[in-house]
Write a structure and sequence with these properties.
Radius of gyration: 18 Å
Number of domains: 2
CATH topology of the largest domain: Rossmann fold
Shape: globular
Distance between the termini: 20 Å
Strand order of the largest sheet: 2-1-3-4-5
Helix content: 25-40%
CATH class of the largest domain: Alpha Beta
CATH superfamily of the largest domain: Response regulator
Structural class: alpha/beta
CATH architecture of the largest domain: 3-Layer(aba) Sandwich
Number of strands: 13
Length: 231
């Protein structure tokens, strides 16, 4: 049973969301501030399967909460759905740039939210292990994490270190878009000066090597790239 955390300073909305999510069989825990959530994550023993996070809250807003979560290795892969009264394109783009997986504008349909929750949870990758190493699959493509191997039709692909870590980033974060700046921080760290155009070039080269699996990496114009597993 999936555990969902709701973070919103509108108590009536929290109650409505909680009732509807519980009716779908989810476990729900409610928070009225970003600080309350962060304290729970840092001090609690349970990691939620998904967060529904309001943006416009007093104190720490949703963007700041998301940024803190993405910087922590323990929580960086938790799917996050942003809720916001703002619906402009720049606000939605900001939501993805901060690390959100989905963005729903208020007012919204409860049925639509429940559907998005269901779809996002389905996207969470459940992969195998071989000799303790995480293994990821996509069609006839296989990535073995600890051995730094990627095979296509059981033949080893010659990927550079950067290409391997790009592919691994997407596999380890199914259902998520990454802004180019975040990709730079995750893959290149501080090794060298890297521009957003550099990211585009490496993605193009990686897609070429992935052959008919190149659709694994999705493009979101103006935002970046992501991996959305096939249903």
């Amino acid at each position: 049973m999936s555990l969902i955390y709701i973070i919103d300073d509108e108590e009536e909305l929290i109650e409505i969301l909680s009732i509807n999510l519980k009716s779908e069989g989810y476990q729900v825990k409610e928070f009225i501030s970003g600080n309350q959530l962060i304290n729970q994550l840092l001090n609690g023993k349970t990691i939620p399967d998904l967060l529904i996070l309001d943006i416009m809250m007093e104190g720490m807003n949703g963007y700041e909460v998301c940024r803190k979560i993405r910087l922590d290795e323990r929580f960086k892969n938790i799917p996050i759905i942003f809720l916001s009264a703002k619906s402009a394109e720049e606000d939605r783009i900001a939501g993805f740039e901060y690390g959100g997986d989905d963005y729903i504008s208020k007012p919204f349909s409860i049925k639509e939210l429940l559907l998005r929750v269901k779809v996002l949870l389905k996207r969470v990758s459940r992969n195998d292990e071989i000799d303790g190493s995480k293994v990821f699959y996509y069609r006839n493509l296989t990535l073995i994490k600890d051995s730094f191997q990627v095979t296509y039709d059981e033949r080893l692909l010659q990927l550079t270190k950067t290409e391997f870590h790009l592919l691994l980033l997407f596999f380890e974060n199914p259902g998520r878009f990454f802004a180019r700046e975040e990709i730079i921080n995750r893959v290149w760290n501080e090794e060298a000066y890297v521009t957003e155009r550099t990211v585009d070039v490496h993605i193009q080269r990686l897609r070429k090597k992935l052959k008919n699996c190149k659709e694994l990496i999705s493009t979101y114009s103006g935002i970046g790239y992501g991996y959305f597993p096939e249903k």
